[in-house]
Amino acid sequence: MLKAALLLVPAAALTDESLFELFKSDYVKSYNSTEAEAERFTIFSANLRKTEALNAQRVDEDDAEFGVTQFMDLTEAEFKAQYLNYVPSEQVLAEDVYAAPEGFAAPGSLDWRTKQSGVVSDVKDQGQCGSCWAFSATEQIESEWVLAGNDPLVFAPQQIVSCDKVDQGCNGGNTETAYAYVEKAGGMALESAYPYKSGTSGNTGRCKKFETAGGDVESFSYVVPECKKGKCNDQDEDKMAAALASHGPASICVNAGAWQTYTKGVMTNLQCGSHAANALDHCVQVVGYTGYTGDAKACGKGLKDKCVWNVRNSWGTSWGYQGYIRVQMGKNACGIANDATFAKVK
Questions:
Q1: pLDDT of the residue at 276
Q2: Which of 36, 235, 275, 306 could pair with 300 as two cysteines, CB 3.0-4.6 Å apart?
Q3: Which residues are CB-neighbours of 99 under 8 A, at least 6 positions away?
Q4: Within 10 Å of residue 268's Cβ, how many Cβ atoms?
Q5: In the structure, how many helices (H) and strands (E) does the chain have?
Q6: Measured over all CA atoms, what is the biggest interatomic distance in the chain, rounded to whole angstroms?
Q7: How far apart are alpha carbons 332 and 32 in whole angstroms?
């Protein structure tokens, strides 16, 4: 694999051409013509220069590092169009905000992958379809289904992509309206019964007949009050940590423009870019955190030992930490606390 190859040979010692050959091999890339391949190589080389510039701005050894990912042959605009399609709702769909039990103190670390079996399903891959919102909603419903006392099930994001007519399928949507669709539909079909195909075709697809197997959404609530406009500088990550620790993982929507070439490390507020409400473009799931000391805003002031959110993405296991990314806590990095939700399922 490319990452293994780069451990053996310093990246700076490899030419753009050599890196491109490794990239094509590792990610099984092929192009329709020599002209198309030449165009993709030009884009690949431009992205390499961007990663070099991003890495030169790292302040601390724990900060995020950028390099070759499966998205290196896409322009910024192509990447956004194919993978970043969060579309906020103009409607006020709920005003409920979750409250942790009185006196509850969030622990210093939390990981729902290990805290309770089945709460976090395997990492999914949305493929070449802007369906992150549907995947985030599906993942959250899967988690809530188990937390409600049911056996784990793998639900079908394709159902939401194709059948939710309020949202726009591969052209984007948001988790709140996805929850509303699932509530109206009476639950979700199993992935095995309604397999995901939009990731390969890039098309939303027509809604098919299906039988629900569970995951009937009754309502949803915000983890902390939603930030729908402005700079969103005051999102309460202490309350968010307490909510995750006392309830479970949360669906979140973030600014993920800089995630295109993320490889490892902690994505800082500076590296994320804006955390304003209008900067959000991607929906994922936060499953826990590490290094928390009871005061999120005090995290990482000395740069070392940052408090970190652990976030599950929907770009497969070859990206980041086997499909996960680490995001700095305490500064609303990437807008991580702007649009965080829990769903209530039967």
A1: 98
A2: 306
A3: none
A4: 23
A5: 11, 10
A6: 64
A7: 42
CA 311, CA 325: separation in Å to the nearest integer? Answer: 5
Query: What positions carry a catalytic annotation?
Result: 132, 282, 313
Q: What is the pLDDT of residue 167?
A: 95
Tell me what pLDDT residue 243 has: 98
* Alpha carbon distance 207, 335 (integer Å): 32
Q: Which of 214, 213, 240 is nearest to 225 (CA)?
A: 240
Residue 297 backbone dihedrals phi, psi, to 5 degrees: -70, -20
Q: Are 335 and 280 in contact (CB under 8 A)?
A: yes
Q: Name which of 282, 249, 252 is nearest 144 in CA terms.
A: 249
Which residues does the chain have with pLDDT short of 70? 1-13, 92-93, 300-305
Place of tokens 């995947």: 135
The single residue listed with the structure tokens 């395997």 is 122
Beta partners for 120?
none
Residue 138: how many CA atoms within 13 Å on its side-chain side? 28
Report all structural domains of the chain as residue ranges with CATH numbers, in order of start. 76-345 (3.90.70.10)
> Residue 239 has which token pair?
């309350």
What is the structure's pLDDT at 190?
A: 98
Torsion angle of alpha carbons 171, 34, 15, 69, nearest 10°? Answer: 20
Q: Which amino acid is at 272?
A: C
Q: Which two tokens stand for residue 61?
A: 């050894």
